[in-house]
Amino acid sequence: MNNIGRNIFMGAVLAVLLAPLVVLGGVSLNEPKQLLFPPEGFSLKWYVELITLPDWLNAVKNSLIIAITSAFLSVSIAFPLAYFLWRYRVFYARILFGLGLAPFMLPPVITALGFLIFWVDVGQLLNLQLYGSIIATIVSHAIFFVTLPLVTISLGLESIEAQVIEAASTMGGDDRTIFRTVVLPLVRPYLISGYAFAFVLSLNEYIVAYMVAGFTVETLPIKIFNSLRYGYTPVMASVAVVFVLVAILVFGLIARFGDLPKLMGAWSNKET
Amino acid sequence: MAGLRLEEIGKIYGSLAAVQDVTLDFPQGKFVCLLGPSGCGKTTLLRLIAGLETPTTGRVLLDGKDLTEWPAHKREFGMVFQSLALFPHLTVGENVAYALRIRGADRPTQRKRAQELLELVRLPGVIDRHISQLSGGQRQRVAIARALALNPKLFLLDEPLSALDAKLREAMQVELRLLQQRLGISTIVVTHDQREAMTMADIVVIMDHGRVQQVASPLDTYRSPANAFVADFIGTSNLIAAILQSPTSASVQGRAIRIERLPQGVSTGAQVTLSVRPEEVHIRPAGEAGENRISGEITFIRDLGASIEVTARCADAEILAVMTPRERPSARIGDPVMVELPAPACVVLKQ
Amino acid sequence: MNGAPPKGLQQHSAVIYPAVMLLIFFVAPFGIMLAVSFYHRVESAFYEPAFELANYARFLTAFFGKALGFSIWIAALASAISVAVAFPFTYFMTRLGRPAQVRWLVLILAVLSLSEVIIGFAWSSLLSRTAGVSNILVWLGLMAQPEAWTPAFSALLIGLVYLGFPYTVLVLYPALSRLDPELAQASRMLGASPFKTFFLVIVPVLRNAIMSAFIMVFVFDLGAYILPQVLGKPEHWTLSVHITDQAVFQSNIPFAAALAIFLMLVSLALVSLTMLLGQQRRTP
Q1: In a 3-state reduction of DSSP, which class is residue A22?
Q2: Quick one: pLDDT at residue C284?
Q3: Cβ-based contacts of A259 with chain C (< 8 Å)
Q4: CATH number of the domain residue B257 falls in
């Protein structure tokens, strides 16, 4: 395929990828409270509403709390597991690793239903209102997205040369010291990108949040879907635009400070 | 006793014996090279000494103290790795001072020591650079400085110069040898490059298939190889089948060849191998009579300018002779010749 | 890094917390869901313990049989289109310079992370009468009046392809970016056109990667639950939508669980097939 054909093809893909984003951007700037594109008038009031209308602001708050804490919890589960597997390579660590990958491989609705049943039953068992609580959403998201930090951190650990660790041990470092002075600094960028991936996906996640606590803890995607069904407002579009910007910012930062192609599975710079 | 001692060391991975029955003494202050082809067990042996592996059998002793069960981080040996294994997240100075830092030395002490060590390896002025900003040769020096930070009792190097280009490697060999002599530190280097071993070592340990084949000074391994493997591995050698006829004579292709030295435990009538270095072999005109000659035919002549290599086929043996241009025979490929194996050059090896 | 197995509680300490978390919050929910799929539904409460196969027998009804058939059909179609577009796209992308690749990856990741809700909303706007593409066509004079193109099968298909496309690219990316460029060059040297090279060399070499990408995206598309509701008509509801509907609106959790278990088995079988293909690739 020659260059012109290639450029037309790539341009067409780019256009289709961007089209919905452009429409969302346009709609979010509409003056009237109607779904119109090209936009009529120009107004930022729908962005203002997002952070001033109590129900939207509440959804923003819920989404942020869930994303921040669940991503943290994900990393806290993924890091020791990835480290243990890397350090010892025993079969039960592999099985746990496979379990950690599973939520991302299966259709999410299955995991979501599993969580729903789990929180209902455990709540009854312990006589606690777990189903419908923000705790349930946080823990569910943490497990659901544990795959992402697990993969990035494992990749980071694998990229540490075995001889570097051995060198540290010949210089007198025991396991703990090596972990603190060599492993942790080298794996830190991968920890951060694992957190970032989990954070962005948690922010956007719908079905698990909905099944576990959809009627009591409204996140932004749930709120958008509800507005989609029960009455349109351009605020939805402004949320979408903010989400796109957050995602581009986060992934852009990962690309700026890390090796994004390598994180996505290409050979690293040095090897090619 | 002073120095490192290995006693009946063996290391088995699954069904593979990487190191078998190695007993060795490394005298204090000497430069020892572990030499052998890849897969001969030399790196495993070094890692056993470093404590990065535990032996399946045997003991590791330093100054009479049993270290076998000690992990690497308690042995306080300095080690330079094949990949150098510099910490990519630390500066040059931080790399060199790492051992001090994890022992709780304060920053000025760390920096002062790093500076001293970098001067020792003749690499001043890079203390604050990042590893990625250094050339291959500079990294090499950083790795050496880092391994010496604690004044270790034992300095271990695993193929340390393999990443350098040929010229730089030769220069570093000399420098490493001089550094070792200046510090008087017991040093063990793993290498597959016999030239490197010849340049640096006081003692060469030649290994093959996990076993020690010979322990000797570099020159002795060349002049008196212990067996056919060593004769072939160190330099080039013609290995010729012979039958011992008397303590001073062997028969090669039906002709009597006088010999001067015999290894122990070989009796008359035994199958032996004669090892003759190519530079000792002479090509004589066909029909010219003389001692220790067998007849053959020239199959190839390689003129390298500084020397000439002549290959002659004598019955089922290919014999290589190396000579100076002045000794060049007038014969050409296909011509019959006499190949002379001078008696002092014939080393008899047991089969 | 180290072959030695861990000894004692101290060396195991790192793995205890993640193991407990995964067992309690991932394995246990699936175990309970499996049990519940055999339970008896009770009106007004959720369910009561029992062992009955009625929930499973119920998919054999024409209604759920049709829903299952439709789910598989549209997921297969959407993932085939995704792969057909994403494969050449990813190939071209991996041949670009590193900075350009990074920019594409950022965009692809941003689209991938977009909530299905947002994608559904965006495409329903794009295909709507008031804010959609048809307005542009009217403006260009190609159409007399703007039209609504959603809800419709084609709208749902477009949405699913858009949803699955970035995922497909990322699944294909490792294999394609590691492809030796000399392979294509060798083919060119032998006189094949770029077009022929692509179809006779690149595609066959990566046949397994393409197959596994197809299956991964198929499973991914099977999981779509918002797009069928937003872009499709009721008859376009997929199994995922029915599971949600049964669980949340019909309050028939045992039946939803049985549907979910069934969907999981289908997905697991397909994912294992992918892994098998992946192993074959490593040992050709």
Answers
A1: helix
A2: 38
A3: none
A4: 2.40.50.140
Q: Mean per-residue pLDDT for A146-164?
A: 89
Query: Across residues B201-206, what is the average pLDDT?
Result: 94
Instruction: Classify residue A51 as left (phi > 0), alpha (psi -120 to 50) or beta.
Output: alpha
Among chain A residues, CA nearest to B100: A171
Q: To probe the interface with C, which of A113, A121, A203, A262 has the most C CB atoms within 10 Å?
A: A113
Residue at which a domain ends, from B180, B203, B225: B225
Quick one: pLDDT band at residue A78, thresholds 50, 70, 90? very high
CA–CA distance from B198 to each of B78, B166, B193, B231 (Å)? 23, 15, 9, 14
Q: What's the DSSP call for residue B23?
A: E
A190 vs B contacts (CB less than 8 Å):
none
Least confident of A178-187, B55-64, B160-169, C74-83: B160-169
- Domain span including residue C250: 61-282
State whether A169 and B74 contact (CB < 8 Å). no
Domain hosting B123: range is: 3-225
Domain total for chain B?
2
Q: Kindly list the partner chains of chain A, i.e. chains with 3 or more CB atom pairs below 8 Å.
A: B, C
Whether C135 is in a domain gets the answer: yes
- Give which of A164, A165, A170 to mutate to test B binding, by max B Cβ within 10 Å: A170
Q: Is C20 in the A-facing interface, judged by CB distances under 8 Å?
A: no
Q: What is the pLDDT of residues A198-220, one digit of tens each?
A: 998 898 899 999 989 888 899 98
Q: Strands of B238-246's sheet, edge to edge? A: B255-258, B249-252, B238-246, B271-276, B347-350
pLDDT per residue as tens digits for the range B11-51: 998 888 899 999 999 999 999 999 999 889 999 999 999 99
How many folded domains does chain C comprise? Answer: 1
Q: Which pLDDT belongs to residue B254? A: 84
**E strand or H helix at B154, and its extent?**
strand B154-158
Q: Which of B44, B83, B102 to mutate: most A Cβ within 10 Å?
A: B102
Task: Find the closest chain C residue to A221 by CA distance.
Answer: C117
Q: Is B105 on the interface with A (CB under 8 A)?
A: no
Which CATH number characterizes residue C124's domain?
1.10.3720.10
Of B169, B198, B225, the last residue of a domain is B225
Instruction: Flag if C18 and A81 touch (Cβ within 8 Å).
Output: yes
| C120/A contact by beta carbon, under 8 A | yes
- Regarding whether B307 and B167 lie in a shared domain, the answer is no
What pLDDT, on a 0 to 100 scale, did the predictor assign at position C280? 62
Is B70 domain-assigned? yes
Q: What pLDDT shows up at residue A38?
A: 67
Of the given ranges (A264-268, B129-133, B180-184), which has the lowest mean pLDDT? A264-268
CA dist A14 → A9, B290, C107, C174 (Å): 9, 88, 9, 21
Evaluate whether residue C216 is within a structural domain: yes
Query: Structurally, what CATH architecture does the domain formed by A66-219 represent?
Result: Orthogonal Bundle (1.10)
- Token couple for C80: 């085939």
Q: How far apart are CA A20 and CA C111, in angstroms?
A: 10
Q: How many CB atoms lie within 10 A of CB A140?
A: 30
- pLDDT value for A268: 47
Smallest Cα distance from C77 to chain A, Å: 17
Q: How many CB pairs under 8 A join A and C?
A: 272
